[in-house]
C-alpha cells in the first residue's frame, strides 16, 4: 500500500513530469540568480539552493508536484544578515531555519497557520510583490535609455510570446533574445557577471565557518525564526493552491518537515534558505507536472544547465533579469484584492493595508505578518467586546434587573461596569447572565467590583443564569461571598 | 442532432446569455446540458488566498455559477454542473472531445482586437479544436 502510493507519486505521470520539470528548470534559473542578487550573495548561492531544495523536497516533501527553491520572500529577509555578517552566517542561519521548520512539522504546527487571517495573507503576497519590484529600481540608477529599452523588450517578449507558443517558457526566450542582442550588438550594459562569481561546479558539503558560540546563535536566531515562519507560510499557501489546482490533497505537516530537511541540506551545501514558489508551482502544474519526479527533474536539470552553460549565464544583461523580476512581481500581486478592497469589511481592509505598510517600511515580511496578526486580534477583541446591558425595574419588589448579553473578558469589562447605575434607590439588583459568558480573571474582578459598589449603597446583588463554564470559573477564582447563582 | 450539449459557464453575463441559448437548443432537440466552470491557475490562487478553507472555496464557486444553475433549473431541461481545473480553453476542449458532446455552447467575452491579442480568445480556441460544432454566443 505504502510502496504503491510512493510509486504513484514518483512514476504515475512520467512523461508529463519530465517535460514540465525541464520547463521549470529553465524558468528557475533567472529567478535563482535574481534572488541571489536581492540577497546580496553570488548567483551560485541561489542556484545551489534551488538545486538542493528542489531535489531534497522531491523526496521528503508532502505536496508532490510543488516546486521549492530559492525565493524572493526569503531573499528579502536575509539582506541585512548578509550585509553585516557575510555568507557564512547566512549558511548557518539557513541550517537553523531548517531545524526550526522541522520542529514545526514534528509538533504538527501547520495547524497554527489558521491563526494567520486571510487579510494578512493577502497583505503578505502584495507586499512581497512590492518589495520584489522595489528591489529592481536600484538597477536603473545612473543607467541610460538602453537599460529601459532592454527591460521593456524583455517584458514585451514575456507577455506576448505565449500568444504564439507556450512550448517554451517566455521568460527564458526573453533572456536569450536580450542577451543575444547585447552580445552581438556589442552594447555595454551591466551583466550577471558583474554581480558576483559563477562557478561551474557541483555544490560540495561544507560546515559553515563561523564561531560556534552563543553570540553567533543570538545573531542568526532572529533571522532564522523569521525565515522559518515566512518560508512555511508561503510553502503552505502554495501547497493549498496546488491542492486546489490539481484537485488533490497533501500532507501539510510532512511538507513542513520536508521544508526543514531541505533547508538544512541546502545550508551545508552552500545554498541560501528557500521555500515553495507559487509562480513556479503554477508553471509546473500548467505544464503537466503532477508527481515528485517533476520537482526532481527541475532541480537536477537546473544544475546540469549551470555546469554546462555557466559561461553563457554570466553574460546575461541585468536588464533582462530586471524584466523577469518585474514579471514575477506582477504575477505575485493579488490584483483581485484591489477590486474587492472597497467591498471588504473595513477592519479586514485595514489589516491588509497595515500588513503591506509595515512590510514596505521595515523590509521584513515577518514583521508585517506579526503586525497584521496582532491588529486582527485587536479588532477581533474590539468586535466581541461589545457587551449589551438592558435594564428593567420591578417596582413592587424595589428591584432592578440587568440583563447582560456578550462576552465578559479583559477587553470588555471597563465598558461593562460603566453601564450600571450604582447610586440607585432600589433595595436589590439582579444581574441576569443567561446570555453572557465569563472568560477570565478580569470578568470575575469586574463582578466583584460591581458588587462592592452596590454594597456601598446598601443594595444587594444576585446573579442568575450563569452557565456551567462561567460558574465554574467564578467559584474557582471569585471572591463573591454574597453571590447566589441559581 | 444536438442531444448532448456542453455549456461553458463562469457566471458572467456572457455565460448567462450562453445558458439561455443552450437551453433553447436542448428544448428543441430534447437534449440534456452539462455546464462546466473551469478554474484556472490565477483563479485558484486568488480563491485560495481569499478563503479560509476548502469548504468556503467550494461554496464561493457554487455561488458564482448560481445564476446559471437557476436558469437551468427553471427551464426543466435535464442538466448537470461540474467544476473543472486547468486552463479554460484546453480543459473545455478536452472535456468536450473525451465525452463525445454533440455541441459546445460558449460565450464570447467581446474583447477588442488589442485585448484579444494580449489575452487570447477562449471561445476561438474551443471553436478551432473541439471535434463537435461550437456555438459562440455574442
Automatic annotation (TrEMBL), chain A:
GO terms for cellular component: membrane. Signal peptide: none annotated. GO terms for molecular function: secondary active sulfate transmembrane transporter activity. This is Sodium-independent anion transporter. The chain crosses the membrane at residues 21-39, 45-61, 89-107, 119-139, 145-161, 168-187, 217-239, 260-279, 299-332, 368-385. Gene3D superfamilies: STAS domain (3.30.750.24). CDD domains: STAS_SulP_like_sulfate_transporter. It comes from Virgibacillus indicus. Its main location: membrane.
From TrEMBL, chain B:
Pfam families: Usp. Gene3D superfamilies: HUPs (3.40.50.620). Signal peptide: none annotated. Residues 1-138 form the UspA domain. CDD domains: USP-like. PANTHER family: STRESS RESPONSE PROTEIN NHAX, UNIVERSAL STRESS PROTEIN UP12. Belongs to the universal stress protein A family. This is Universal stress protein.
Amino acid at each position: 500500500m505504502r510502496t504503491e502510493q510512493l510509486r504513484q507519486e514518483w512514476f504515475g505521470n512520467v512523461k508529463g513530469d519530465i517535460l514540465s520539470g525541464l520547463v521549470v528548470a529553465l524558468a528557475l534559473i533567472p529567478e535563482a540568480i535574481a534572488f541571489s542578487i536581492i540577497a546580496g550573495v553570488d548567483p551560485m548561492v541561489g542556484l545551489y539552493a534551488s538545486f538542493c531544495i528542489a531535489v531534497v523536497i522531491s523526496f521528503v516533501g508532502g505536496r508532490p508536484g510543488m516546486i521549492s527553491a530559492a525565493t524572493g520572500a526569503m531573499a528579502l529577509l536575509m539582506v541585512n544578515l548578509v550585509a553585516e555578517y557575510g555568507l557564512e552566517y547566512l549558511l548557518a542561519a539557513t541550517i537553523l531555519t531548517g531545524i526550526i521548520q522541522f520542529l514545526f512539522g514534528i509538533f504538527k504546527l501547520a495547524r497554527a497557520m489558521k491563526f494567520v487571517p486571510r487579510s494578512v495573507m493577502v497583505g503578505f503576497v502584495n507586499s512581497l510583490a512590492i518589495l520584489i519590484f522595489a528591489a529592481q529600481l536600484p538597477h536603473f540608477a545612473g543607467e541610460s535609455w538602453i537599460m529601459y529599452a532592454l527591460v521593456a523588450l524583455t517584458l514585451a517578449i514575456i507577455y506576448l510570446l505565449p500568444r504564439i507558443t507556450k512550448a517554451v517558457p517566455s521568460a527564458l526566450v526573453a533572456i536569450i533574445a536580450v542577451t543575444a542582442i547585447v552580445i552581438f550588438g556589442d552594447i555595454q550594459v551591466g551583466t550577471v557577471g558583474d554581480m558576483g562569481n559563477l562557478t561551474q561546479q557541483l555544490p560540495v558539503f561544507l560546515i559553515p565557518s563561523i564561531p560556534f558560540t552563543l553570540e553567533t546563535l543570538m545573531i542568526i536566531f532572529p533571522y532564522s525564526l523569521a525565515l522559518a515562519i515566512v518560508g512555511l507560510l508561503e510553502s503552505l499557501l502554495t501547497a493549498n493552491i496546488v491542492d486546489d489546482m490539481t484537485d488533490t490533497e497533501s500532507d501539510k505537516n510532512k511538507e513542513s518537515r520536508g521544508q526543514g530537511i531541505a533547508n538544512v541540506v541546502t545550508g551545508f551545501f552552500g545554498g541560501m534558505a528557500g521555500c515553495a514558489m507559487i509562480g513556479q508551482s503554477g508553471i509546473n502544474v500548467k505544464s503537466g507536472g503532477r508527481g515528485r519526479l517533476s520537482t526532481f527533474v527541475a532541480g537536477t536539470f537546473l544544475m546540469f544547465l549551470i555546469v554546462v552553460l555557466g559561461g553563457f549565464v554570466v553574460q546575461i544583461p541585468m536588464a533582462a533579469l530586471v524584466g523577469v523580476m518585474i514579471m514575477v512581481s506582477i504575477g505575485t500581486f493579488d490584483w483581485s484584492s484591489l477590486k474587492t478592497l472597497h467591498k471588504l469589511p473595513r477592519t479586514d481592509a485595514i489589516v491588509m493595508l497595515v500588513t503591506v505598510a509595515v512590510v514596505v517600511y521595515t523590509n521584513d515580511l515577518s514583521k508585517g505578518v506579526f503586525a497584521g496578526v496582532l491588529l486582527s486580534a485587536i479588532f477581533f477583541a474590539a468586535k466581541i467586546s461589545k457587551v449589551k446591558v438592558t435594564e428593567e425595574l420591578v417596582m413592587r419588589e424595589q428591584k432592578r434587573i440587568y440583563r447582560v448579553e456578550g462576552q465578559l473578558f479583559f477587553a470588555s469589562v471597563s465598558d461593562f461596569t460603566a453601564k450600571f447605575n450604582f447610586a440607585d434607590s432600589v433595595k436589590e439588583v439582579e444581574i441576569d447572565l443567561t446570555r453572557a459568558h465569563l472568560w477570565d480573571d478580569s470578568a470575575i474582578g469586574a463582578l466583584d467590583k460591581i458588587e462592592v459598589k452596590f454594597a456601598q449603597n446598601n443594595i444587594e446583588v444576585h446573579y442568575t443564569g450563569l452557565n456551567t463554564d462561567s460558574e465554574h470559573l467564578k467559584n474557582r477564582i471569585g471572591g463573591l461571598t454574597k453571590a447566589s447563582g441559581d | 442532432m444536438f442531444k448532448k450539449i456542453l455549456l461553458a459557464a463562469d457566471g458572467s453575463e456572457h455565460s448567462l446569455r450562453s445558458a439561455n441559448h443552450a437551453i433553447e437548443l436542448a428544448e428543441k432537440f430534447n437534449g440534456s446540458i452539462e455546464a462546466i466552470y473551469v478554474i484556472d491557475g490565477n483563479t485558484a490562487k486568488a480563491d485560495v488566498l481569499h478563503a479560509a478553507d476548502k469548504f468556503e472555496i467550494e461554496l464561493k464557486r457554487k455561488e458564482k455559477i448560481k445564476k446559471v444553475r437557476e436558469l437551468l433549473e427553471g427551464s426543466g431541461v435535464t442538466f448537470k454542473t461540474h467544476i473543472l481545473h486547468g486552463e479554460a480553453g484546453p480543459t473545455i476542449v478536452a472535456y468536450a472531445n473525451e465525452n463525445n458532446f454533440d455541441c459546445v455552447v460558449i460565450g464570447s467575452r467581446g474583447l477588442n482586437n488589442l485585448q484579444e491579442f494580449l489575452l487570447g480568445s477562449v471561445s476561438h480556441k474551443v471553436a478551432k479544436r473541439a471535434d463537435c460544432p461550437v456555438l459562440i454566443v455574442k
